[in-house]
Write a structure and sequence with these properties.
Helix content is 43%, strand content 23%. The strands form three sheets. Strands 3, 4, 5, 6, 9, 10 and 11 form a seven-stranded mixed beta sheet that branches. By secondary structure, the chain is α/β, with parallel strands linked by helices.
Length: 302
């Protein structure tokens, strides 16, 4: 196979543009003898003469013009690669894999991706939905580059592998059936619902968050029904089967037969964080995604 030398091809192209060996040497800051030697070596590598005498000057052969026709496509491809590589180094291109829990995907990740499509269209974000605790596991194993999870499920402070960035405190509101006696009660407190049947997951983060919030309000919730998805939980609330704590980020799931009440006191919150492997937060592409997530989180707080 012929060995193509990009540097020598550029010299040949410059000679075509400048017309003389002397002008080519000046443009490339070389000596005329070095230009002639490089082109002679290129002709030997390609197995064809590239220059022919034309009076006191030289001109390109038909073979040289054929070589340059193909070389132009190579030069264009290299220019494109150079531009894309520059974008990658600046964080304007590349791929970032994001693992996020269910409500964070529509509330935070999707708006962040939409922003990045406008500001950095060459930066590709791949999203993977995962439970809050699983997102940390995916991050630690290298399956994702950035995880959105809950502070309550973060690894211990002794874990030096991950760096965590707080994003927002997501308030928990109470979901009541539209005809519930407390649906319009002023100054509603979580303790006012201590005798109600509750709907929450049988295990996992939402079970823990609901139990801890109710216990902090002075009671242990009676779990009447178990469900993990917001569609199922709110459908049961709407049917009058119980009440539930719902994160404000899950607003898209709300139903017309459900009243969402903001607690007047002792309002529980869950703390949403972004996590990366320590040191990766300085990577340009990951930093772009983190910045977009912060912007979305700030807009939600506002």
């Amino acid at each position: 196979m012929i060995e193509w030398d990009i540097k020598k091809l550029r010299i040949l192209r410059t000679l075509r543009e400048r017309g003389t060996v002397t002008a080519t040497a000046e443009a490339l800051m070389m000596t005329p003898s070095a230009v002639s030697q490089q082109l002679s070596n290129l002709g030997k590598q390609l197995g064809v003469p590239l220059l022919e005498a034309h009076g006191r000057r030289v001109r390109l052969t038909d073979a040289a013009h054929l070589v340059l026709r193909h070389a132009e496509a190579v030069f264009a491809q290299l220019e494109q690669a150079d531009a894309e590589l520059t974008g990658y180094v600046r964080g304007e291109a590349g791929e970032v894999r994001v693992g996020a829990f269910s409500t964070a995907v529509p509330a935070l990740v999707v708006p962040a991706v939409q922003r990045l499509r406008t500001t950095h269209p060459a930066l590709e974000v791949r999203v993977r939905e995962a439970e809050a605790a699983e997102a940390y596991e995916l991050l630690a194993s290298g399956a994702v580059d950035l995880a959105l999870s809950l502070a309550a499920h973060a690894p211990t402070a002794r874990d030096q592998q991950l760096a965590r960035v707080p994003l927002l405190a997501d308030p928990l509101d109470v979901a009541l059936p539209a005809g519930h006696p407390m649906a319009a009660a002023p100054g509603l407190r979580l303790a006012d619902l201590s005798g109600e049947p509750w709907i929450f997951g049988g295990s996992g983060p939402w079970s823990e968050i609901t139990r801890h919030a109710c216990e902090a309000a002075g009671f242990v919730p009676e779990q009447a029904h178990s469900a993990a998805g917001w569609t199922a939980i709110l459908a049961m609330v709407e049917a009058g089967m119980g009440v539930a704590l719902v994160p404000r980020m899950a607003a898209a799931e709300r139903r017309t037969g459900v009243v969402m009440r903001v607690l007047s006191a002792d309002q529980p919150q869950r703390h949403v964080v972004a996590a990366v492997r320590r040191g990766a937060e300085a990577g340009p592409a990951v930093a772009r995604v983190l910045a977009a997530l912060r912007e979305v989180a700030t807009a939600r707080r506002g």
